[in-house]
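Sample entry follows:

:::
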Amino acid sequence: MRLREIIICIFCVLAAAGLLFLGSQRLDSINAQRSEMKLVMNEPLENAPPSLAFATVALGAFRGLIVDVLWIRADQLKEEGKFFDAKQLAEWITMLQPRFAKVWDFHGWNMAYNISVTIPASRPQERWQWVRNGYELIRDKGIEMNPKNIDLYRSLAWIFQHKIGNVMDDCHKYYKLQLYHGIKPLLGPETQEYFINMANAPRNIQDVLADPQTAKFISELAENDPVFLNQDEIVESYLSLRQQPKKFPEKTFAVIDRYRQSDTLENFDIFAKAYHLRKTWKFEPELMVRLNETYGPIDYKDPNNVLPLDWTQADVHAMYWAALGLEKAGKKGEYQFEELSTDRIVFHAIQALYTRGKMIVYTSRVPSKNDPNEVTEQESVFLYPDLRFFDRYDSLLRTLKEKYRQLGQDDEILEVPHRNMLKRAVLLFYQAGHTDKALKVYNALRKDYPKDQEIQVSLNEYARARLMQELKDIGLSDATEIITLMLHEGFARYGVHDDDEAYGREKMAKEVYDHYQKEFGDEGVDRVLLPPFNTLLYVGLSSFINDQRYPEDLRMNLIQRIQVERPELYEKLKDQEQAVMQELEQLQQQQQQEQGQQQ
C-alpha cells in the first residue's frame, strides 16, 4: 500500500514538472502578446516617495495591495477636500494599475470638477486649464488603456455636456469660447461633403508625401523654413502657417500663394485638418460623418440633404464620445445600466441642440474690472433654440424606448423624458408661430399619453398655461426660449404686415427680458445673465430669416421693410450683426489677404 502511494506521488510530481516545462515554453509568446495588447504594467513610478517606490518593487505581483491602500487614501482625501493630494495619489494608481478604469474616471473628474472650482471665477483661464486637463486625461490616456470600458466614454461625454455645455459653472461661457476657437479652424466649410473628404484622407504623412506634387509642395516650404524638414512637425507647422502667417517668413507664405486653387493644396489642407482631428482631438472623421447623417439638423427644403452638426458645440462632443462608447463597449441584446446612462448622454445632447443648438459669438462693451470708468470689449457666447433638431430628438427617443422595452425594462425609464420633451416642443413651435407643427406634436402627445390630465385641453389653452408656468419659475433656458421665439414670431407677423401683433410680441419679449434681468441681474454672476436686448433682437431676426418653413421671398422682403420703415431698428441690428460676425471676419481675414496678394 505504501509503495502504491509513493508511485502516485512520483507520478504527480513528474506530471507537474512536465506541465510546468510545457507552460514555460509558451511564456515568451504570451509575454510578447501581453506587450502588444498593453497588458504589461511594469512602468516605474516617477516622483513617488522612496517608501512607495521600494514597496512597489519589493511586492511585485502584490502591487494590487498597494493600489487598494492608495485608492482608499485618495478617496479619503477627496472627502476631506484635499483635491491636489488626491490628484497625486490618483496619478500613482494609474501608473501602477492602468487597467483600473475607475481611477481614470476619478482622476479626470477630480481635475475637471473639484480642482477647477477651487480657483476663483475671476481667473477663467486657470479654471479652463484644469477642466481641459480632466477631459484630456480620460480621452488621451484612460480610454487608450481601457477601450472596452463604457464608463470612461460616459464620464468623458458628461464633462463636455455638463461642465462645458451647461450653465452650472460660473465660467461656462469662457469654456464654450475656448472649445469654439480650438476646433473651429479645423472644420473647413462645414458641409457633409467636406467631412466625407476628411474621412477619406490618408492617415499618415508618409502616404501623403508619396504623391510627387505634394512632396514638391512640402519641399518648397522646407526651402524657406527648415521646420518643414521634420516630418513629425509638418502638419502642425502647416496649420500654424495658415492660421498665423505672420509668424513665418513671407517667402514661406508665398509658396501657399503659388499653389492656391490647386488640387495639391486643397488635398493637403484636408489631410492636415483630418490628421489633427485624429491625433489631437481623437476624433475619427468617419464617425463624424455617420453622426451628421443620423443626428444632423433637418433641411426643410430638401430632407434628403445632410446638414452637419455644429462641431464647435460641447454637446456635439458629448454625443460623439457617448456614441463611440456604445459602439466600442456596448453589448447588443443585453441590458446594462452603464449603457442606458450612455444612451441618455446621446439623447440629452440632441435635446440640448434642440433647445440651444444655435450659437453666436459676439463682443460687448463692459466696464473694466480695474477701472469702472474705463470700457473694455469682452467676447461672449449666446445659445438659443434650433427647432430643426426636434424630429431627430423625437425619433431617437422612440427608438430607445423600443430598444429597452425589448430588453425587458420598464417603459417609464424613457417615457417621462419623452413626454416632457413633447410638452416643451408644443410651446416652442407655438411661440415660433408654427401652429400647424405645434398642433401635430400636441396630437401625438395626447395619443401617446392619453392619461395625462394637463393635455386634456385645447392647444391654445395648453400653450398659455405652459407659458404662465415657465414665467413663474423662469430660468436661463426658459427665458432664452421665450424671448427669442417671441421675437422670431414677431418678425414673422411684421413680415405679413400684422403690425399690432408684431409689436405685441416684441413688447412682451422685452417685458420677459426685464423681468428676468430684475430677478437675476443683481446676482453678479455672468453665467446666468442674458446678452443686451439688441443682441436678442438680432437673434430673433436671424432666427426668422434662416427659418426655411417660411417662404424665402417673405423673409427677404422683411429685411427691406425694416430698412425702410424702421431705420433705427435696422441700424441697431446692423451694428449688432457687425459685432456678432466679428469672429467670422477674423477667420476670413487671412483668405481676403491672400486674394489681395494674388491680384
In short: The chain has four domains: 54-183, 188-292, 402-472, 474-599.
